[in-house]
TrEMBL record, chain A:
Annotated PANTHER family: ABC TRANSPORTER I FAMILY MEMBER 6, CHLOROPLASTIC (PTHR43204)
Domain ABC transporter: 2-246
Tagged with keyword ATP-binding: yes
Origin organism lineage: Bacteria, Pseudomonadati, Bacteroidota, Flavobacteriia, Flavobacteriales
Protein name according to UniProt: Fe-S cluster assembly ATPase SufC
Biological source species: Winogradskyella bathintestinalis
UniProtKB/TrEMBL annotation, chain B:
Similarity section: Belongs to the iron-sulfur cluster assembly SufBD family.
Residue ranges constituting the SUF system FeS cluster assembly SufBD N-terminal domain according to the UniProt record: 2-167
Pfam families in the cross-refs: SUFBD_core (PF01458), SufBD_N (PF19295)
Domain of life (superkingdom): Bacteria
Coiled-coil annotated residue ranges, if any: none
NCBIfam families: sufD
Residue ranges occupied by any SUF system FeS cluster assembly SufBD core domain in the UniProt entry: 174-404
Name of the featured protein: Fe-S cluster assembly protein SufD
Amino acid sequence: MLKINNLHASIEDKAILKGINLEVKAGEVHAIMGPNGSGKSTLAAVIAGKEEYEVNEGSIELEGEDIDELAAEERAHKGIFLSFQYPVEIPGVSVTNFMKTAINESRKAKGLEDMPAKDMLKMIRDKSELLEIDRKFLSRSINEGFSGGEKKRNEIFQMAMLEPKLAILDETDSGLDIDALRIVANGVNKLKSKDNAVIVITHYQRLLDHIVPDFVHVLHNGKIVKSGGKELAHELEAKGYDWIKEEVSA
Amino acid sequence: MELKEKLVSSFMAFEDTVDVHSSIHDIRTEAIKTFEEEGFPSKRLEDWKYTSLNSILKHDYSVFPKHENDIEFKDVKKYFIHDIDAYKIIFIDGKYASHLSQTTHDGLDVCLMSAALTKPKYKVIIDNYFNKIAAKNGISSLNTAFSYEGAYINIPKNKVVEKPIQIIHFSTGNEAAVMLQPRNLIVVNENAHVQIIERHQSLTDNPVLTNSVTEIFTNKRAIVDYYKIQNDRQSASLIDNTFVNQKQESLAKVHTFSFGGKLIRNNLNFYQNGERIDSTMKGITIIGDKQHVDHNTLVHHIEPNCESHQDYKGIFDDNSTGVFNGKVVVEKEAQKTNAFQANNNVLMSDKASINTKPQLEIFADDVKCSHGCTIGQLDESAMFYLRSRGIPEKEARALLMFAFSNNVLDSVKIPEIKNRITKIIANKLGVNIGFDL
């Protein structure tokens, strides 16, 4: 599904990613962990196509196709979804209309007609139930005045609506209490299938109790320095990141 | 010959066409003298510091355009809000076009200024209201001097006018360049309600200069909802001078949508003569190329317990320039005044500019007055957020601009106008998405 080869990326001439290699197959859940400033969010943003970052070397392939040159919206149309660590507040645009526009623009790009209003409403109803979202909430402006938990639940609601092939969850657990964490994780688990893949970016192991990864990677100083199974997450939780840093510098 | 000289000498020719032995003509004669002394405003005047009329005064305008009446409704239908029943007062090159209009004298007067200025039955009203609040400066006096035609609307006490009134001034420009000076008088009596839509529309690319004066009187507890749709061709310029005199407990709202034209100057003035008055001015400006839009507003709080609300949004692309100069005067007697003013702007290009200046003169000590102006760029993180969900760059930008200006549309009470404005904006931004935000 996703293949990243020797990816180097920088922002304003500051190198952040320094040779990432990662392969994610359909049906898999990968966790990317690492200390603050290791490049986790940059990796997510670069895959999603944020233009401020410059890819200096290497490639990103989605289903065998090089997506380096594609705009963020084209990557979204191909099935990439990024759940933001800090979802942006957009006053004046309701969640419902945002999703309607997003889905219909995506359909337009594929040469399809707009989704019939009836189907759209049904989809919104079904997916909001999945995420235990009050539908009144959907007529509010995107993220405006939302609590941390509401913002993250709203991200996963958008993921449910857009049905991506590859979902990247950037620190989705931050700002969530245990109930919200459970709801968000349940939502992600229900959306998981053998045809899609999930990359979970997190600082802590706690989310991984609920969304169980097949692989865990440790990112440090712009490189994946260690990979393993889900037990690696437990080890990191128990021992912190210092031993990894030492291992790398040794 | 310069335009000023041409106009002054045209006044004599104009006098051949009107009754010079009337009190109205005394006002006109006084006004042409004022114009002769003051001329067109220059950038030396504080109020005109950021707007130069030089580029639009250089044309050789025809001051008395030929009567032109062969426009058919189907050709200009799109400039009407045609999906609602409305009274219509339509002019072509300054002359009344009866075949496009729908006027009335049945329970209210929706008719012509030329009739009001000449027929004896309107004399009392004209004596009471005509030129009572229009400014006595050069530009308004120029209009007063040539005042003859325009809309005359008189809504009697307690009358709620069920359908809106559309005033449209078409210019054909069949002669090279045309100058128009419509004069409107709107009297809304006690407890009456009316909605009015005004538009100026050029039909060719020949230069047009419109210098319009509208006097609006909202008497006790009257409600006036006024919409100005300014989406003219790039060859057309407009100087709009609107004066609203409000009596106690009246409510007047003016929405100004400025999307097209070469140069637009809106002089919008509210005078609050009574208690518990509410005055609202809102505007959306979206321009590009070398267009220029200048909003010059005044609210004069004269008596206690009144409110004013101003909310202007501007989006400026390419080399366009904008001005917002909002003056709020609160007299010493006007205690417990609530006056709010906001002007928010987005610059889409490095070459676009906006000069925004709030001007508060407060002489009372127990008031709430606030003002805020912002100038910014489109939020890049919001752009990435929208695009990451599959909304293309152009559509994402349009969505954000729409959201930015949306609260101005919130107070538009006629859904068809809201739809029309929405379509004009979408069209202007080059997108085809339904914004029912």
